[in-house]
């Protein structure tokens, strides 16, 4: 598992991303998509440290957040004690009830490293959705991200939270045999005044899919794509897919 989601850096992740992402806007974005589909119950996969949980829990009759990392879930429960969080692997999980909508947030689809992982995830979610249930998730644009990292192998992103300045130095590279598998080395720092402190380093592999690959996997799993939405982020362009259980 990535150190970012383990005991070494999970708290760093929670703090630094508060400055990277406008979570109020994220909450509103996903809540509106769910309201548009008139859902009552929501399952969030890759819920991380629970940043979307308060609004989703308050606006829908039922909310459950699922994440692979116990350390991320520990922080989520500390921040939002009344939330309903469970540990699980989105590629293969089972729940005793069904939901109107499932969300995969935070570009967590990038940690599905094969087409088989992607298909298994969609199938597992299919089994816990009600008839005509909705799947909503975000992805990185493979067609724009791969050229971007080839031109920008090292990028620094900065974040300021509670008067503490954080920075992340990212180094990206991919092998010529498979440009869609991205090796990501990241180093994290915090600075107060003139003093800079090294917080830790993480190395992980993630995958970027094309829209064609995503839609093909959804169709194979029994979904119909209703729409896709462009969704810029602090680092690179992403898109959101809204699909409906069709079988």
Automatic annotation (TrEMBL):
EC number assigned by the record: 2.1.-.-
Methyltransferase domain mapped to chain residues: 42-133
Keyword Methyltransferase: yes
A GO MF label: methyltransferase activity
Any one GO BP annotation for this protein: methylation
EC category: transferase
Record PANTHER family: TRANS-ACONITATE 2-METHYLTRANSFERASE (PTHR43861:SF1), TRANS-ACONITATE 2-METHYLTRANSFERASE-RELATED (PTHR43861)
UniProt name for this protein: Class I SAM-dependent methyltransferase
Organism: Sediminicola arcticus
Upper classification of the organism: Bacteria, Pseudomonadati, Bacteroidota, Flavobacteriia, Flavobacteriales
């Amino acid at each position: 598992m990535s150190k970012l989601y383990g005991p070494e850096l999970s708290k760093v992740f929670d703090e630094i991303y508060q400055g990277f992402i406008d979570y109020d806007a994220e909450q509103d974005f996903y809540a509106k998509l769910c309201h548009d589909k008139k859902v009552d119950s929501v399952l969030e996969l890759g819920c991380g440290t629970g940043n979307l949980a308060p609004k989703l829990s308050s606006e829908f009759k039922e909310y459950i957040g699922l994440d692979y990392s116990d350390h991320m879930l520990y922080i989520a429960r500390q921040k939002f004690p009344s939330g309903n969080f469970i540990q699980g692997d989105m590629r293969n999980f089972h729940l005793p009830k069904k939901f109107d909508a499932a969300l995969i947030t935070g570009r967590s689809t990038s940690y599905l490293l094969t087409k088989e992982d992607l298909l298994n995830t969609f199938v597992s979610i299919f089994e816990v959705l009600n008839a005509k249930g909705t799947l909503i998730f975000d992805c990185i644009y493979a067609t724009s991200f791969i050229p971007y990292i080839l031109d920008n192998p090292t990028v620094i992103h900065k974040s300021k939270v509670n008067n503490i300045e954080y920075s992340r130095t990212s180094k990206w590279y991919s092998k010529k045999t498979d440009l869609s598998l991205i090796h990501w080395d990241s180093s994290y720092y915090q600075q107060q005044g003139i003093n800079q402190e090294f917080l830790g380093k993480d190395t992980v592999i993630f995958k970027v899919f094309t829209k064609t690959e995503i839609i093909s996997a959804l169709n194979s799993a029994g979904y119909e794509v209703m729409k896709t939405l462009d969704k810029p982020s602090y680092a690179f362009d992403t898109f959101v897919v809204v699909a409906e259980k069709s079988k």
